[in-house]
Amino acid sequence: MSTEKHCGYVALVGRPNVGKSTLLNRLLGQKISITSRKPQTTRHRLLGIKTVDHHQIIYVDTPGLHQHKLNAMNRYLNRAAMNSMEGVDVIVWLVEVLAWTEEDNYVLKVLEHIQVPVILAINKVDKLKDKTLLLPYLQEIANKRLVVDVFPISARKGNNLVELEGKIINLLPINNPVFPAEQITDRSERFLAAELIREKLIRRLGAELPYRLTVQIEHFANQDHFTHISAIIWVERPGQKVIVIGKQGSVLKAVGEEARKDIETMIAGKVFLQLWVKVKEKWCDDENALRQLGYSNDDLTK
Ligand SMILES: Nc1nc2c(ncn2[C@@H]2O[C@H](COP(=O)(O)OP(=O)(O)OP(=O)(O)O)[C@@H](O)[C@H]2O)c(=O)[nH]1
Ligand SMILES: [Mg+2]
Question: How many of the other CB atoms lie within 10 Å of CB of 115?
Fold first, then answer.
């Protein structure tokens, strides 16, 4: 590796659920992006900044690219993913081992217009029982598009990530760091707190309420050695509100406890968290409602 300072932007791109956010957290050694078994977990472009030795890698986590169900939320997600690829120096294209789908074809089509170097990362290799299947799969995908390198990885277990990151650094331009060495994201604690609450909701209720809920922080302030946070969980229908609250408030209570613990770890302090559930009809299909709830185009330029 060269001794000159490298610094640049690296977009993590791929269909929903391939493990982009898991990879980002693993590379940073810290959880800043939420993950779940449900597709379309990530909704916002988010930077993960890693300063190692004299280099700075600015990872860009993106919502998964997908074709179907084109309501306002889906359009927003695709726009966010597309915009995140603009101006980057390297793309890490993630696919899942032995799990090629129509949506991967869509990503491939989007990548046709991309000029910057693309590294192919074949994720979730820990799931592969018969390792002899890896090489043919790897060749098959690499034949679909010219890539500068291919890495079979496990974002969950951390396999092959040092090698992947070494390659990324080599491809980054020689530049001074953009961010201070101690900064790890461009997002506020307020934003990350809302995301952690949403993660607990998706993980608990993903099957019942795919992605038709969102979280808005109403109040976030320090007082008496506590961070006091109150947040509204927006759903689309009264029936969904009943599900989120659960029997005698059991679901909301569990979500609140899990989220509070994660937020306390993130801010390294005590948190007092209050959650409210409110109904806003069809917010997922309504461009104005989306903007009000923080899904705005301004978000894309951050
Ligand atoms: N077995 C295994 N599972 C993984 C690995 N990486 C990610 N996963 C799982 O795959 C699921 C999706 O991971 P995410 O990181 O949320 O995927 P994503 O690409 O960010 O998804 P979207 O934000 O919806 O586009 C989660 O359940 C992860 O735990 C891996 O290396 N091995
Ligand atoms: Mg994600």
Answer: 5
